[in-house]
Design a protein that fits this description.
This protein folds into two domains: 258 residues, 3-Layer(aba) Sandwich (Aspartate Aminotransferase, domain 2), CATH 3.40.640; 131 residues, Aspartate Aminotransferase, domain 1 (Alpha-Beta Complex). α7 links the parallel β4 and β5. By secondary structure, it is α/β, with parallel strands linked by helices. It is 40% helix and 13% strand. The chain has a seven-stranded mixed sheet, sandwiched between helices. A five-stranded mixed sheet has the order 8-9-12-11-10. It binds pyridoxal-5'-phosphate.
Length: 397
């Protein structure tokens, strides 16, 4: 880990002391344009840059390598997660693809068994073809991680809380194990956003986000980022941006820069309404079970309090059957039935047939994704309207 980690932690501590999260979200990398004074970062739709002479340029040569709008976003996201750099990619999956591209044929990865559906799809159907090996385990027991690490393990890849069952992994303990075994720890922090969870401060090496979700927050742009604690990883990922080219476009960078300005404000409302909706669902007679780390009866509620500074907007609940789920999902009016999450609007989805359809019945059953399960990403509408909508929809069951 060495110096890079320590330096980044010092930078983070200094930044935290100087400026709060909301201030950094609005100002880091988002300084007024030096040429015109424009308060909003300009979009630079240019593929190339005029050079003054051979080897003489103003820091930009070709847009696959770097773009000024992208530099601003990468500066901003690095400041929010407390990393040394934050290379952005064309989607969350492109970011995850870049992370595993740091590995070599014969390397082994230990993964959570309850990941975003697209992640095992990439690992099992594409990356195994390049000689990478993956083992899926329940990372909510940190000891399982230690047991699964082999001689050729190079990376541990976790998501916490998981999708859709909201199981937590203890990042401080897992990062200690990884450090001892000299294995990188990568955390997909999409569900919590840097506002509620800071994996690098808990010892992770890299944080992945689908910026499509809370960071952008307005359901209008795809994107991904890998925030690095170590300069060495950051350099390799910058090389992959140039070499493989799955970069985020200037306009999409601008959308995230715009969205992230309200991240703190949005997350506060997402969290407040999330708690209210979870409480309502847990008392509703048509609901059989609720999975939300903010509920005192969540099996890892104590860890959630320790590791996260909020519980967020993601809630999963059991309606009892596919028929019940379908009946209620057809009836919602304020909530929209759709894939994705983290937008200002409340999105509701059916994991078994949507996000996790690719897993197959057996694997789904094995990790507890039943046909009656419904996932909700609580938006920032008036919470009473969300509650009324859910109530009338549940009462048709
Ligand atoms: C959506 C999502 C991804 C993939 O991101 P895209 O931007 O859709 O490619 C990865 N991880 C999690 C947790 C997600 O929710």
């Amino acid at each position: 880990m060495g110096n890079d980690r320590r330096i980044s932690q010092i930078i983070l501590m200094k930044k935290n002391k100087e400026q709060g999260f909301a201030t950094r979200a609005i100002h880091c990398g988002q300084e007024p344009d030096p040429m015109t004074g424009a308060v909003t970062v300009p979009i630079y739709p240019t593929s190339t840059y005029v050079q003054q002479g051979i080897g003489q340029n103003k820091g930009y040569e070709y847009a696959r390598v770097s773009n000024p709008t992208r530099t601003r976003l990468e500066t901003n996201l690095a400041a929010l997660e407390g990393g040394v750099a934050a290379p952005v990619f064309a989607s969350g999956m492109a970011a995850i693809n870049a992370v595993v591209s740091l590995l070599k044929s014969g390397d082994h990865v230990v993964c959570g068994n309850d990941l975003y559906g697209g992640t095992p799809r990439l690992f099992n159907n594409v990356m195994t073809g390049f000689g990478l090996e993956f083992t899926y385990i329940d990372t909510s027991e940190a000891q399982n991680v230690e047991r699964a690490i082999r001689k050729n393990t190079r990376m541990v890849y976790v998501e916490t809380p998981t999708n859709p069952l909201m199981r937590l992994s203890d990042l401080a303990t897992i990062s200690q194990i990884c450090r001892q075994k000299k294995v990188s720890l990568v955390v997909d922090n999409t569900f919590m956003s840097p506002y509620f969870q800071q994996p690098l401060a808990l010892g992770a090496d890299m944080v992945v986000h689908s910026t499509t979700k809370f960071l952008n927050g307005h359901s209008d742009g795809l994107g991904g980022v890998v925030v690095c604690a170590k300069q060495e990883d950051a350099d390799k990922l910058a090389f992959l941006q140039k070499a493989a080219g799955a970069i985020l476009s200037p306009f999409e960078c601008w959308l995230v820069l715009r969205g992230v300005k309200t991240l703190a404000a949005r997350m506060e409302i997402h969290d407040r309404s999330g708690r209210i909706v979870a409480d309502f669902l847990s008392k509703h007679k048509k609901v059989k079970a609720v999975f939300y780390p903010g509920l005192p009866d969540h099996p890892q509620h104590a860890l959630a309090r320790r590791q996260m500074s909020g519980f967020g907007a993601m809630i999963t609940f059991e309606t009892g059957s596919l028929k019940n789920a379908n009946k209620m999902l057809k009836k919602v009016r304020v909530c929209s039935l759709g894939e994705s999450l983290g937008g200002v609007e409340t999105l509701i989805s059916h994991p078994a047939t949507m996000t996790h359809a690719g897993l197959g019945v057996k694997d789904r059953k094995a990790i507890g994704i039943t046909d009656g399960l419904v996932r909700i990403s609580v938006g920032i509408e008036d919470v009473d309207d969300i509650l009324d909508d859910l109530d009338q929809a549940l009462n048709v069951i």
